[in-house]
Amino acid sequence: MIRNLAEILGIGVDTFTKDSALEYIEKKRGHVVTINPEMIINANKNSEFKEIINNADLVIPDGIGVEIGLKILGHRVKRIAGIEFGKELLYNAAKSGGKVALIGAKPEVISLAKKKLESEFENLNIIYTHDGYFAQPTEIYEKLIETAPDLILVALGSPKQEMFISKIKDKLPNSIMIGLGGSFDVWSGMSKRAPLIYQKMGLEWLYRAIKEPKRFKRIFPTIPLFLLNVLVERITKK
Ligand code: UDP
């Protein structure tokens, strides 16, 4: 299996289906980025972040924005929701007896998420958790290197989670590491995922933006800006 990247505003996005992305990363191991328009805009303002994404082992299009952007540029790629991809990785880890670590979210959220996941997946082996509100990652890095989990889910929000993973990935060549944004909040039951109708229409971002006014302010200007930049890219690359 080889990667076939579609480029959008300087970011390479994998064109795998969900199943082949899973198969690919289970063999390859390494850093998985779940990319969205806001991250692409940020990466174009922050070269370190851009390099981290472009050095990742798999970049999946998390959400409708990237799917539309890629379509404008002539690539047919289906979105893969990061939160669902995370669950598939957990399922595989539970099946194979792999060790799992969860890093991120508030202490009460992560402990609830751990319990819920353990009751959902029989034989899930969560060997380490740490909340996402730490001053220094040193102690967490040491623990991860010592235990070498097969799967490390990091939910610190972006770009924190990608930065966190990039600093340790070389020391953990056999781990799959993925940044999952607010997934632990959803898995803990503390925050609800958008109703299915929003998910199916690709409007999950809109639901979350309406529910969280702070997010609305942050996300809303980036979507038109992202699409505008993509249109400019399309015109100038012809
Ligand atoms: N978070 C964290 N440490 C921080 C900041 C955020 O653990 O220093 C957690 C936060 O509690 C939430 C998650 O990161 O569970 C993702 O936040 P958000 O939904 O804003 O991220 P997005 O999905 O937009 O990337």
Question: How many strands?
Answer: 8
Distance between the termini: 30 Å
Structural class: alpha/beta
Mean pLDDT: 95
How many helices? The count is 13
CATH fold description of the largest domain: Rossmann fold
Alpha carbon gyration radius: 17 Å
Helicity range: 40-55%
Succession of helices and strands:
EEHEHHEHHEHEHEHEHHHHH
Mind sketching the topology for me?
Elements lengths: L4 E4 L2 E4 L3 H11 L1 E6 L1 H7 L3 H8 L3 E4 L2 H9 L9 H15 L2 E6 L2 H14 L4 E6 L7 H10 L3 E5 L4 H7 L9 E4 L3 H6 L7 H6 L2 H8 L1 H7 L2 H16 L1
Parallel strand pairs: 3-4, 3-8, 5-6, 5-7, 7-8
Antiparallel strand pairs: 1-2
Helix pairs in contact: 2-13, 4-13, 11-12
Bound molecules: uridine-5'-diphosphate (UDP).
Key traits:
2 domains; binds uridine-5'-diphosphate; alpha/beta; 13 helices; Rossmann fold; two-stranded antiparallel sheet; 6-stranded parallel β-sheet; 238 residues; globular; 16% strand
Structure, described:
- The chain has helices spanning 18-28, 37-43, 47-54, 64-72, 82-96, 107-120, 138-147, 160-166, 183-188, 196-201, 204-211, 213-219, 222-237; strands at 5-8, 11-14, 30-35, 58-61, 99-104, 125-130, 151-155, 176-179.
- With 238 residues, it is of the alpha/beta class.
- It has 2 domains: 12-188, Rossmann fold (3-Layer(aba) Sandwich), CATH 3.40.50; 196-237.
- A hairpin with a 2-residue loop joins β1 and β2 (11-14).
- It binds uridine-5'-diphosphate.
- The site of uridine-5'-diphosphate (UDP) has 14 residues, from α9.
Outline of the structure:
The protein has helices at 18-28, 37-43, 47-54, 64-72, 82-96, 107-120, 138-147, 160-166, 183-188, 196-201, 204-211, 213-219, 222-237; strands spanning 5-8, 11-14, 30-35, 58-61, 99-104, 125-130, 151-155, 176-179. The protein has 238 residues and is an alpha/beta fold. The longest helix has 16 residues, at 222-237.
